[in-house]
Design a protein that fits this description.
The chain contains one helix and three strands. It has a single domain, classed as Double Stranded RNA Binding Domain (2-Layer Sandwich). The relative contact order is 0.16. With 65 residues, it is an alpha+beta fold. The longest helix has 27 residues. The chain is 42% helix and 18% strand. The chain is elongated, with a radius of gyration of 16 Å.
Length: 65
């Protein structure tokens, strides 16, 4: 699946990367290629952690009140 990444660079700074669909998922790299690679790693890790956080709730039976 593809997601939008925003790459930005200010003078005298590294390339920053953020993902609008994943608040808090940010990274940076000294070169554009490094920033892209770091972005792949950051997004992959972020999604993996999100899946782990949901997994305990998927295995619980629904509660009836």
């Amino acid at each position: 699946m593809d997601y939008i990444a925003i790459i930005h660079k200010d003078p005298d700074s590294d390339f920053g990367v953020s993902f609008p669909d994943f608040p808090g998922c940010i990274t940076a790299g000294r070169t554009l290629d490094e920033a892209k690679e770091m972005a792949r790693e950051a997004l992959s890790g972020h999604i993996a952690l999100m899946r782990e956080a949901v997994r305990p709730y998927q295995n619980r039976p629904p509660s009836i009140r």
